[in-house]
Every structure is written in C-alpha cells, then in structure tokens.
C-alpha cells in the first residue's frame, strides 16, 4: 500500500505527487483506490486525499482488519466523515453493527452521504460527542474539521453540543456493548474512558485510542492499567508510562 502521508508535503516529491490532486473538484465521488476499503465510494473534498487514495493511516487500517470480525459490534468515537465507519461496516458484515459518534454538522453531512453512497445498512449515526457524562458541552469545531474538540470554557467560536457517556449509551439506553472501540476525540480521550468505567470493567472491549498530548497519555495510561489493560503501540510493542505515544491499542489482560 502506497502511503502518501509518509511523504513530506514540503519535499520535492511530496509537492509533485500532490499537485495534480488539487485539480479534482471537491464534490467528485471516486472509488477508494487501494486497501481494505478499495472500491468504496468517497467524496474527494470531504477529507484528506489519502482517504480516497486508500493510504490514510495505513498501519491503523491494518489493525482494524486484524481485530474487527464478522458479527462484532464496534463503536467509532469521533467518526468525522466516516472513513473508519465505512471500514468497520465492511469488516463486521451484515451480522455486525457499527455505532458512529460525531457532533460536528459539517462532518455529519459527509458521514451520512458516505453511508448512503455505499448502501450501508449496518451503521448507525449518533450526533453526539462521547465524554465523561451525559449532557451538553462546549465544542471548538476548529478550521480543520479533523481537529474539533470538547473544551472546558466557551469562546466566540465554540458551539454547544450534546455529549453522552458510553456507560449511559449501553446500560441506560440499552444498546448492545461493543467488542471494539475506536477513540479519536482530540484531547477528550481521558473523559471518554472515565465515562466508560462499567463498560471497561464488565465487557472488556479492545480499544484503539488516539492520544493528544502528554497529559492525556499519562491519564489514559493510568486509567487503562488500573483496569488491567495491556497497552501497546500499533506495532505491538508494550508501552511504558514515561514515553508518550500518539496511537495505542489497549487489550484486556
């Protein structure tokens, strides 16, 4: 799999490879070119070109293939425009279910369009942010739709969005528990884990967690090791608390 993201934008090769991509109209729908989502229909301007090229987060895609199985229930937290929602939908098959959580209207529009373009019937969209407790929170949507996040204080640019904890989603609302959870919530990962205490203790799902900063790394490490999770990087190397990592896989011990 060619990973365009591994080639620096500022390099001569990076500029040469990316220049033609700017000529493609943003509304163009193309089949994803390679990888486990090959052939899926994708809106070019919805996200980075790596998505429709199929090379976006190639290593993480390989892990999804390794862990997601037919019939599983998967939660996609921070679903954005639906790349991983589509991937999990394909991997779990008709007998499985994907629940996609995304609070940003712009992203929700593309997420729903991608599901419709691909005739997906086993994925359910929830227009909420995952967090510590159910309620509402201030959310900074950011100029880059990939980096919106829940914030502690409102500013002129923030929005108020609904928030739900996974414990409430499963045990109060009655949704089947997941066997696999992908978390990419731009600095809110510790709050998501706090709001999943019962789920992690009783159901023991595998977790893919994107970590944003040293404080979140240490917080997540403590939360997960206290619940007897084994923490590895994407290559399967067991991790130490004192060395920050930005992507982890947590499996029940």
The proportion of strand residues reads 15-25%
Report the count of strand segments: 13
As for the CATH topology of the largest domain, it is Rossmann fold
- Mean residue pLDDT: 91
- N→C terminal distance: 32 Å
The coarse overall form would be: globular
Key structural traits:
253 residues; Rossmann fold; 2 domains
Secondary-structure blueprint:
Layout: H1 12-18, E1 29-31, E2 41-43, H2 49-53, H3 58-67, E3 73-77, H4 83-92, E4 97-101, H5 105-117, E5 123-126, E6 129-130, E7 135-140, E8 149-151, E9 159-164, H6 166-172, E10 180-183, H7 189-194, H8 197-202, E11 206-210, H9 214-226, E12 229-232, E13 247-252
Parallel strand pairs: 3-4, 3-10, 4-5, 6-9, 10-11
Antiparallel strand pairs: 1-2, 7-8, 7-9, 11-13, 12-13
Structure commentary:
By secondary structure, this protein is of the alpha/beta class. The protein folds into two domains: 1-56, no CATH class; 57-252, Vaccinia Virus protein VP39 (Rossmann fold, 3-Layer(aba) Sandwich), CATH 3.40.50. 30% of the residues lie in helices and 22% in strands. The chain contains nine helices and 13 strands. The protein has a seven-stranded mixed β-sheet with strand order 5-4-3-10-11-13-12, with helices on both faces. α5 (105-117) links the parallel β4 and β5 (123-126).
């Amino acid at each position: 799999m060619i990973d365009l993201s591994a080639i620096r934008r500022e390099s001569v090769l990076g500029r040469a490879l990316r220049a033609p991509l700017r000529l493609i109209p943003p509304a163009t729908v193309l089949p994803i070119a390679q990888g486990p989502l090959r052939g899926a229909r994708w809106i070019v301007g919805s996200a980075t070109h790596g998505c429709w090229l199929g090379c976006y987060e190639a290593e993480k895609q390989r892990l999804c293939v390794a862990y997601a199985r037919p019939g599983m229930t998967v939660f996609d937290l921070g679903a954005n425009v639906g790349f991983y929602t589509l991937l999990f939908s394909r991997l779990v098959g008709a007998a499985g279910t994907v629940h996609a959580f995304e609070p940003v209207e712009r992203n929700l529009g593309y997420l729903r369009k991608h599901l419709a373009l691909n005739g997906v019937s086993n994925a359910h969209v929830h227009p909420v942010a995952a967090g510590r407790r159910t309620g509402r929170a201030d959310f900074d949507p950011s100029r880059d739709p990939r980096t919106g996040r829940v914030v502690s204080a409102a500013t002129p640019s923030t929005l108020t969005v609904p928030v739900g904890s996974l414990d409430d989603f499963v045990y109060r609302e009655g949704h089947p528990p997941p066997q696999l959870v992908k978390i990419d919530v731009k600095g809110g990962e510790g709050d998501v884990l706090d709001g999943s205490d019962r789920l992690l203790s009783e159901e023991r799902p595998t977790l893919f967690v994107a970590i944003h900063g040293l404080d979140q790394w240490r917080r997540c490490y403590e939360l997960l090791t206290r619940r007897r999770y084994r923490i590895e990087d994407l290559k399967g190397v067991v991790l130490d608390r004192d060395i920050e990592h930005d992507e982890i896989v947590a499996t029940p011990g």
